[in-house]
Amino acid sequence: MVFNDAMLKNNITLENIESKEDNFFISINCTIDDKSYFREDRKNLMVLYFDDVSKNIKSAVCLDGKIREAKVFTKKQAKKLVDFIELNKDKKSCIVHCTAGISRSGAVGSFINDYYNNNSKEFYRKHPNIEPNSVVKSLLKNEYEDRHYGKR
Length: 152
Hints:
Helices cover 37% and strands 17% of the residues. By secondary structure, it is an alpha/beta fold. The protein has one domain (2-149): Protein-Tyrosine Phosphatase, Chain A (Alpha-Beta Complex). α2 packs across α5 (134-149). The radius of gyration is 15 Å and the shape is globular.
């Protein structure tokens, strides 16, 4: 809820997010127990739904006790996300969030840091608790390399 509180505190809503011209936002949400602040994309906002898993799991137990399928990050989402990052590459900053702020957003944030050729050691020093989801990071890296260096 830290992200939601920050958006409320700064009066950032779906209706005015495009006025934040120096920033772009990536909102990563669970497919189960969804409590997303934003529900649809804008030119500087991408809303994604996937879970912190390495494969689809048909028997994930949710907070409400119901069993639902947890969904993995896909190649299609990786392509869409790299497209979005490239469309917003001239922005001054990117705000990435997910429910826990450790694995999914960590992988996306790490990828964006590398995309801009920023210092990886400094990134991890500033964000010591992240443990990037390997599926997310790998699919983003593969998508980037395929489009910039040709299909392998």
